[in-house]
Design goal:
Elements: E1 5-9, H1 13-25, E2 29-33, H2 36-43, E3 50-54, H3 62-71, E4 77-83, H4 87-95, E5 100-104, H5 108-139, H6 149-161, E6 168-171, H7 178-187, E7 196-200, H8 206-214, H9 231-234, E8 239-243, H10 250-262, E9 264-265, E10 274-275, E11 279-284, H11 288-294, H12 299-305, E12 308-311, H13 322-336, E13 343-344, H14 346-354, H15 360-374, E14 379-380, H16 405-434, H17 439-446, H18 450-459
Helix pairs in contact: 13-15, 16-17, 17-18
């Protein structure tokens, strides 16, 4: 068991040293500081579970030390030591963040009872925080499910930028959940009580998009029978999310850049400018760096948008999340529909995990919804799943050829990815079989570091124990 560390700060050596002896007899690590400034310096190391702090010190008052510790985020619990005449001050100390106080003189038993109570309470609190964090990971961060390293890192970034106003650019394939990330950023920000407005820039023509974003005045163009607020105005004081930002024309890019630089906009056909205060989050499934090289996207606008970049990995790169997501979608469908399906069979889980999901989360959700509604039993079996999910990696089915060029490109990419995955998996299996399940030996056989070999095993859901 790890020993608890306690710091004692008291200018009365008799009391300080007595406390130290009592605590050390009870297997605590006790450090005594007679000088208040030295005691504060020691407390700021943040390595103590608890601090016994005298209220009346000659150099710097105990209350001032307490305020400094709390302002610096020191996690140590504090018990104030005070005389009977200073009870009111002790109560003030409790209000300022002290865990408890103890009146002088006190007996060793009384001291130990107070300390053990506070330490136990602190341990329970830490356990609850840990359980809550674990629960948040399993239930999702701001409604987004993910326990893979890539998603945990994204959640960490969102927490770090929560109280900032910086623009964010989210990149990733279609269907990876970019709007959900944008909503999570908004909900954790200082603007969470203000509007979150989303616009798909690929859904409108350039003329309509300009009016949609910046608004227009009556008579500014044919069909403008009344003045209209743009999304920038509607989202004022809140967050504006522009999806598929790569689809906006160079003309609108120029106007967007001006709005970001001046924080003012002019409606189409208007002469007056209006001040706006928004946080802008944009998203793209295309590489804007390549578009800059091609001359189809402004470099100066790109740097305005990409203050904080967030890249969402495709679903096949976060396989740890696939079944968790599938179960979440199934539960959601069950809550909104009268269906029999409750679980996925082992075979179904294996098929779902091995499929490459080129359409990412959107495709997974659609498949789960379709299968759950059509399933006539409580368990979703492998035969309930669509045939395209069961295609062996690298297998080509002529009867299911795509009919459109875009579909063919995606199909070719999926076959290529699945083939690489299949080869990689077989490579690992055969190596582990040769090494009889010994990971270190297997890594050495193929010329890899053990950590890299183990990472590949985890990525492919391979357990070395299966080959011992």
């Amino acid at each position: 068991m790890i020993k608890k560390k306690i710091l004692i700060i008291d200018d009365e050596a008799t009391i300080g040293l007595s406390c130290k002896r009592v605590l050390e007899r009870e297997n605590f690590i006790a450090v005594y500081q007679e000088n208040a400034n030295n005691g504060l310096k020691e407390a700021l190391t943040n390595q103590y579970d608890l601090i016994l702090l005298d209220l009346l010190l000659p150099d710097i008052e105990g209350m001032e030390i307490l305020r400094i510790l709390k302002s610096k985020g020191i996690f140590s619990e504090v018990i104030i030591m005070t005389g009977y005449g200073s009870v009111q001050s002790a109560v003030e100390a409790i209000k300022s963040g002290a865990a408890d106080y103890i009146n002088k003189p006190f007996s060793p038993d009384e001291l130990l009872i107070r300390i053990n109570k506070i330490i136990r309470h602190s341990e329970i609190e830490k356990e609850n925080i840990a359980l809550k964090e674990e629960l948040n990971i399993s239930q999702g961060f701001e409604g987004i499910i993910g326990k893979s390293p890539g998603m945990i890192e994204i959640f960490s970034v969102i927490k770090r930028i929560a109280r900032t106003e910086c623009n964010v650019l989210i990149t990733g394939e279609s269907g990876t959940g970019k709007e959900l990330i944008a909503q999570a950023i908004h909900r954790t920000s200082l603007r969470k009580s203000k509007p979150f407005i989303a616009c798909d820039c690929s859904a409108l023509t350039s003329t309509l998009l300009e009016s949609e974003l910046f608004g227009h005045v009556k008579g500014s163009f044919s069909g403008a029978i009344a003045s209209k607020q743009g999304l920038f105005e509607i989202a004022n004081n809140g967050t504006l999310f522009l999806d598929e930002i790569s689809n906006i024309s160079m003309e609108i890019q120029s106007k967007l850049l001006r709005v970001l630089e001046t924080r003012k906009l002019r409606r189409v056909g208007d002469t007056d400018e209006k001040s706006i205060d928004i946080r802008l989050i944009t998203a793209s499934n295309r590489d804007l760096s390549n578009m800059i090289k091609e001359g189809s996207f402004r470099e100066d606008l790109f740097y305005r948008l990409e203050v904080i970049p967030i890249h969402l990995p495709p679903l096949h790169e976060r396989r740890e999340d696939i079944i968790t997501l599938a179960n979440s979608f199934l539960e959601s469908i069950r809550q909104n529909n009268e269906i029999r399906a409750k679980y996925f069979s082992v075979e179904a889980i294996k098929i779902i995990e091995n499929y490459n999901w080129p359409g990412n989360i959107r495709e997974l959700k659609n498949v789960v919804e379709r299968v759950a509604i059509l399933c006539d039993s409580e368990v979703i079996e492998g035969n309930h799943l669509p045939e395209e999910l069961k295609v062996l990696p690298g297998e080509f089915i002529y009867s299911k050829l795509p009919t459109k060029w875009e579909e063919l490109k995606k199909y070719k990419q999926r076959i290529q990815n699945d083939t690489v995955i299949a080869i990689e998996k077989q490579f690992l299996i055969e190596t582990l079989e040769k090494a009889k399940g010994n990971v270190s030996k297997a890594a050495k056989l193929v010329g890899l570091q053990r950590t890299n070999f183990h990472a590949l095993m985890k990525k492919n859901n391979i357990n070395s124990n299966d080959y011992k």
